[in-house]
Amino acid sequence: xxxxxxxxxxxxxAFSLWAQEAQKGIRFLEGEKWEKxxxxxxxxxxxxxxxxxxxWCGPCKALAKxxxxxxxxxxxxxxxxxxxxxxxxxxxxxxxxxxxQEHIIGYPTLLLLDKEGNVLHRMAGFxxxxxxxxxxxxGKEGESLFALRERYRKGERDLSFLKKYMQALNGAFxxxxxxxxxxxxxxxxxxxxxxxxxxxxxVWTYIKDPxxxxxxxxxxxxxxxxxxxxxxxxxxxxxxxxxxxxxxRECTALKKxxxxxxxxxxxxxEKVKVIRELLRKADLKQRTEMRxxxxxxxxxxxxxxxxVLDYLQMxxxxxxxxxxxxxxxDVYRYMALTCTNRGVLEQVLAEVEDLQRQSDQSTAxxxxxxxxxxxxxxxxxxxxxxxxxxxxxxxxxxxxxxxEFEAMMx
Length: 410
Prior knowledge:
Shape: globular
Helix content: 55-70%
Number of helices: 20
């Protein structure tokens, strides 16, 4: 009898522990009729937390598995909200998706609603537990995204407020709006405010426009940021190199029509002047590559084809254009369309054939192909058979890439 009692006690304790473990995390009503949810919220005087998800959404699954199951998350949400979740492509979820479509910007979307069903706050995407709790707590206490946005609209601009507003925007995955808030802020503060660490920490990741005064100011005072403020120079340099590289691509790009046919070459002398000056005074990685690209672009506009080839060759020899395959190919294609010197075109053909041979011998998974350029050159030089051969190779490659992309997206 005693043994039976001990066994029953053991089973009771084990069951209690299991029950406690099972209760941790958020207790959701799933797929419940919306009218019943509103009635329950009114009866208990609570707001509603709604997880809007789909069955195919990876971040939704991660949120359900790794965050909603946490005890601290469950303790907060179970005590404060009526928690519901809906597959937005099934049953009750379809009607709710339509009802709240202006707030559901992707999946998962996490909504906080009052007992009448009005949206108070919104977050989107995967959120860590602490961030989710803090975001919904702020929404419950009157510092929701919408309340902060209204305060911003009315002109509130002190930095402590802007930080809270940015957190709310980030939680709702409103990246464009975040960028605009910071740009507006930078436009209304003196440039030397960037030397204030609190201001710097708030804005620096948004200094990405090479034509902005902030970009030039940082480069002019780079030693102060490096030695006095001890900023993360690796991150800053990576950001600035990327921004300048993108600007160089835009300044040197081929112009194309709606069918992808080349119609000319970008000609932005004022922008090129700004970028060239930034590169002159900036000791950044890839500076030599970008300066050579701009110089070659100038030579293209002048039609100085022999010099174009000389600088392309020099860039390869010194390693400055080692990873500039697309740029070189654009230069060759523009020459094929514009240059009338047969000797130069034959030299270009020889160089492109050599590049294609190197690419064919490469073991890299994704290799550069110059088939379109070769087809253009052979056609210009009168070898229609070779032009057709390379045109077919270009078509085959395009089909293979499209097939690979479609397989990846499945």
